[in-house]
């Protein structure tokens, strides 16, 4: 998703906190029963004009799979009565006539009857001011992401047949895009079930293990409107004799392949991506249940980005030793998708302005299912897909993989 009208940094980042510490604080300072009042104020930059009553404000319980949804008044105000507990909140709207969307939210906060519990364990007023990011659809998007895996023909778990599909979503009157030097990565934490995210609320995000870069000299790999490419993430080979998905990924356009990586395979005719190890391991582990996947383009070019380690490699927040993580700026992300198995116990990796929620899969691991972007319209035979920076709205989940592979 490309930010087009507003660029507002989420002001409520200070409310993001570690679950364990805050839950202890809650048990010490408030009773477990009785309603807690929460007020929400949506904020638009001066000159921004949307119907705020069309915005859905959803408060998701982070411990149990239930949520509350309200619509604010014309001034963007909403009030809720909730049980004390740990929550996340999203505010989102989509206007199909213009393809404009609005998103904002707070990934994690702890609500007590006395107010919101801050990082120091103090109560602050239970009011959240939520800036809205107004956006238009991105030009390059993930059309399909298959990460769940399937089973071998003998019934064992199988994960080598996974892929990403990238689509030119500029529409019937759009333009040719070039893949050269664009980057694919997954984000840290590798799974959404880690309990907390030390980088939450920041505008730079740590990359997990490897960055994969499309080769080319700038105009080697064009992608016309309505076209897509499939990137096999582990084995760009024919899987028909190996597993139940039967995917013919020897017809993938690109493969995440490097001779140094154990278990990665590529067939003749598939173009290998270029690998850059980020110092966190010797393999690429793509989560089977909750990856966070990004397509991005570093400002100033990839080579400048890689050569500037002093700026883009750093320790985890609060640490001065150990692993140095390679980071990217949220502003570089062309498309990003947080994936999860459940809205509860789910940690956000992407900033809300990149993805306001998550694509939630309910099918079993190794079930051979994927997420597929919602079709919005078709004009002159060219599909246009929904892209609102809200994966819960943008994707159909638990779908049968149907990658658009090269013709035989």
Please provide a written account of the structure.
- The chain is mainly β and 408 residues long.
- It has 2 domains: 2-135, Immunoglobulin-like (Sandwich), CATH 2.60.40.10; 140-399, no CATH class.
- The protein has helices at 19-29, 302-307, 309-312, 391-394; strands at residues 2-3, 36-43, 56-61, 67-70, 77-82, 85-95, 100-112, 115-117, 123-124, 127-131, 133-136, 140-146, 150-151, 157-158, 163-168, 177-178, 183-187, 204-213, 222-223, 228-232, 235-236, 254-255, 265-266, 271-272, 274-277, 292-296, 313-315, 324-329, 333-340, 359-360, 370-373, 375-379, 382-385, 395-399.
- Strands 1, 3, 4, 6, 7, 8, 9 and 11 form an 8-stranded antiparallel beta sheet that branches. Strands 17, 18, 25, 26, 27, 28, 29 and 30 form an 8-stranded mixed beta sheet that branches. A 7-stranded mixed beta sheet has the order 24-22-20-15-12-31-34.
- A hairpin with a 5-residue loop joins strand 3 (56-61) and strand 4.
- It is globular, with a radius of gyration of 21 Å.
- The model is unreliable at 2-32 (pLDDT under 50).
**Average pLDDT over all residues:** 89
Overall geometry comes to globular
| Domain module count | 2
Q: Radius of gyration, rounded?
A: 21 Å
Q: How is the main sheet built?
A: 8 strands, antiparallel
Determine the number of helices (DSSP H or I, runs of at least 4 residues): 4
Number of strands: 34
Low-confidence stretches: 2-32
Helix content: under 10%
- Taking the alpha carbons of the first and last residues, their distance comes to 32 Å
Oligomer: single chain
Q: Strand percentage, roughly?
A: 35-45%
């Amino acid at each position: 998703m490309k930010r087009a009208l507003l660029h507002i940094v989420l002001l409520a980042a200070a409310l993001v906190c570690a679950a364990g510490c805050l839950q202890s604080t809650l048990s010490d300072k408030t009773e477990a029963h009785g309603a807690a009042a929460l007020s929400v104020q949506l904020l638009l930059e001066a000159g921004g004009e949307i119907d705020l009553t069309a915005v859905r404000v959803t408060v998701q319980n982070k411990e149990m799979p239930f949520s509350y949804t309200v619509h604010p008044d014309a001034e963007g105000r909403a009030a809720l009565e909730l049980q004390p507990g740990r929550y996340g909140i999203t505010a989102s709207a989509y206007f199909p006539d213009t393809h404009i969307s609005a998103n904002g939210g707070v990934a994690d906060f702890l609500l007590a009857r006395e107010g919101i519990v801050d990082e120091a364990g103090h109560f602050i007023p239970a009011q959240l001011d939520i800036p809205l990011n107004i956006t238009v659809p991105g030009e390059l998007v993930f059309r399909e992401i298959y990460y769940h895996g399937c089973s071998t023909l003998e019934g064992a778990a199988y994960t080598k047949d996974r892929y990403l599909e990238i689509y030119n979503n500029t529409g019937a009157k759009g333009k040719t895009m070039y893949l050269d030097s664009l980057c694919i990565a997954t984000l840290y934490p590798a799974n959404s079930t880690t309990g907390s995210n030390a980088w939450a609320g920041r505008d730079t995000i740590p990359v997990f293990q490897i960055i994969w870069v499309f080769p080319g000299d700038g105009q080697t790999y064009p992608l016309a409107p309505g076209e897509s490419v499939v990137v096999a993430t582990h084995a760009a080979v024919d899987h028909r004799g190996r597993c139940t998905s039967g995917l013919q990924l020897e017809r993938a356009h690109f493969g995440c392949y490097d001779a140094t990586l154990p278990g990665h395979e590529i067939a003749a005719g598939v173009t290998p991506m270029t690998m850059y190890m980020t110092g966190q391991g010797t393999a690429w582990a793509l989560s089977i249940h909750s990856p966070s996947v990004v397509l991005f383009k570093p400002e100033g070019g990839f080579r400048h980005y890689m050569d500037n380690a002093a700026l883009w490699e750093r320790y985890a927040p609060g640490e001065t030793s150990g692993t140095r993580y390679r980071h990217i700026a949220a502003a570089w992300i062309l498309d990003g998708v947080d994936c999860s198995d459940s809205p509860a116990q789910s940690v956000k990796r992407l900033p809300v302005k990149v993805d306001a929620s998550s694509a939630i899969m309910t099918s079993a691991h190794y079930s051979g299912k994927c997420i597929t972007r919602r079709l919005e319209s078709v004009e002159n035979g060219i599909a246009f897909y929904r892209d609102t920076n809200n994966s819960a709205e943008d994707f159909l989940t638990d779908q049968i993989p149907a990658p658009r592979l090269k013709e035989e």
